[in-house]
Design brief:
Pfam family, one: ABC_tran
Bound molecules: adenosine-5'-triphosphate
Structural class: alpha/beta
CATH topology: Rossmann fold
Strand content: 25-35%
CATH architecture: 3-Layer(aba) Sandwich
Distance between the termini: 41 Å
Low-confidence stretches: none
Keywords: ATP-binding, Nucleotide-binding, Transport
Number of domains: 1
Mean pLDDT: 92
Radius of gyration: 19 Å
CATH class: Alpha Beta
Helix content: 25-40%
Protein name: ABC transporter ATP-binding protein
Largest sheet: 6 strands, mixed
GO molecular function: ATP binding; ATP hydrolysis activity
InterPro entries: AAA+_ATPase, ABC_transporter-like_ATP-bd, ABC_transporter-like_CS, P-loop_NTPase
Order of helices and strands: EEEHEEHEHHHEHEHEEHHEE
Length: 262
């Protein structure tokens, strides 16, 4: 399923948070959304998972404007893993995961055998089977994040939108999550702060600065020392990963950053 942001703009209180964003994510493609704090990544993603209505432009799923769909209908295609996905209610892990089936159920319909199996598989994939009966509020940040990953998977989406999904995850679970995204075949739009993980995981990158796209393309085309300096204000040396061939950034903490902060 193809996702398109067509001139998406968000204006709040006279301030443009995202301006005229055009971005395609082709079927089965992983596009990484990068940019400094406050550049508009979450705002753009919120338009895709419909937490926010664009002031102008549209989000299209296979050419159809999501604004014209019932929330349940778009939720059957798009799953989101965001900072807003966290629940304040102390459901058990198994209950939260099962909630991912909600868009597919009618009323109080019980889960089928297949759906129970789906939940079990998602919990296995997210490495949370041992936590099934624990209350989510007592979990660590990374454990909770993995519960939300399982919940998104049982939704059986075709498009996955993730806002900083590696937040709180230890390095093994970061790598596992991004490897899973690569093998999932899903259409993925993911905001990431870790540029090296983004370069390893994503087919294409889109860089936001001040609410506008400043670069899109393959990781090798986008991640240049000049762009990193201009957009993030950081000096890097670029190397090529010896096995995957992905560009990787080495940060130089001894560079002179005095006076570079605006
Ligand atoms: N509801 C809102 N009302 C007013 N301003 C907002 C609102 N939501 C976000 N902003 C502002 O819009 C800008 C973009 O925010 P956004 O959260 O999209 O950035 P981001 O790229 O996701 O940042 P980060 O990397 O810090 O998560 C920021 O300056 C933020 O303060």
């Amino acid at each position: 399923m193809k996702l398109r942001l067509d001139g998406v703009a968000v204006e709040i209180a006279g301030r443009t948070l995202v301006g005229g964003l055009d971005l395609d994510v082709h079927s089965g493609e992983i596009v990484g959304l990068l940019g400094p704090n406050g550049s508009g990544k979450s705002t753009a993603l919120r338009c895709v998972y419909r937490a926010l209505r664009p002031t102008a432009g549209a989000v299209l799923l296979d050419g159809a404007d999501v604004a014209g769909m019932a929330p349940r209908e778009s939720a059957r295609s798009i799953a989101a893993l965001t900072q807003e996905s966290r629940s304040e209610l102390d459901f058990t892990v198994a209950e939260v995961v099962a909630l991912g089936r909600t868009p597919h159920l009618r009323g109080n319909q019980a889960l089928s055998e297949r759906e129970h199996e789906l939940c079990r598989q998602a919990m296995e994939r997210a490495d949370i089977v041992h936590l099934a009966d624990r209350g989510v509020l007592g979990l660590s940040g990374g454990e909770r994040q993995r519960v939300l990953i399982a919940r998104a998977l049982v939704q059986e989406p075709r498009v996955l939108v993730l806002d900083e999904p590696t937040n709180h995850l230890d390095v093994r679970h970061q790598v596992e999550l991004l490897s899973f995204l690569r093998s999932s075949g899903l259409t993925v739009l993911v905001a990431l702060h870790d540029l090296n993980l983004a370069a390893s995981c994503c087919d294409r990158l889109a860089v936001l600065s001040g609410g506008s796209l400043v670069a899109t393309g393959s990781p090798a085309d986008v991640l240049t020392a000049e762009l990193i300096r201009r957009v993030f204000g950081v000096e890097v040396t670029l190397v090529t990963h010896p096995r995957s061939g992905a560009p990787q950034l080495l940060y130089d903490l001894s560079a002179d950053y005095e006076g570079t902060r605006s």
